[in-house]
Amino acid sequence: MQPFLTRIALTTALAAVTAPGWPAGAQVEQTIIQRTETTTINSTNSQTDTRLLASMAEFGVRELALAEVALRRSKNPTVRQYASEVIAGHERNDKELQLLAADKNLTVPSTRKDLSARSQSKLRSLLDRMTVWSGERFDREYLNLAYSNQTEGLREYRAASAQAADADVRAYAERNLETLENQQAIAGAIAKRLAS
């Protein structure tokens, strides 16, 4: 059997559609995936690529969990808006990551219960820390946690963009680096404003 690898060109497009039964003008996000096939020398997923995909997925689950708590507990409109944007961004990115992993015949974490024991413990520790804070202290600490978690996530995405053997994995990581860098910069800027 000649090894081959299917290469995906993932293209996300937003299409405005009116769903039946929805109020006129209601918009639904639609993801369009274009597939192209190319032949390459290796059809197996490298252990490095598998680990990188799992790490990026676990990061996304952590980010969503932290942002969901912030959205529920923060009273600050700026922090709530930031948390909403983090959730929306990661939901889009994580859907794309799940599709990429599925195309590679891999399963990566998509919920808290899917996390490795180590990642579950880390997330539990972060969430436990968040429960003791309230008010402005909660907002500052959430933003600091988000910033440090994003530092770790950026490390994973940079590693994937540089080390992944699979071109699709590298492309996914490269496409999402700027979004993560922007999220981190915004978290830092809001935290500075709240501290002054």
Automatic annotation (TrEMBL):
The keyword Transmembrane helix does not apply. Transmembrane segments: none annotated. Residues 1-26 form the signal peptide. Keywords: Signal. Residues 47-188 form the DUF4142 domain. This is Gll3247 protein. It comes from Gloeobacter violaceus (strain ATCC 29082 / PCC 7421).
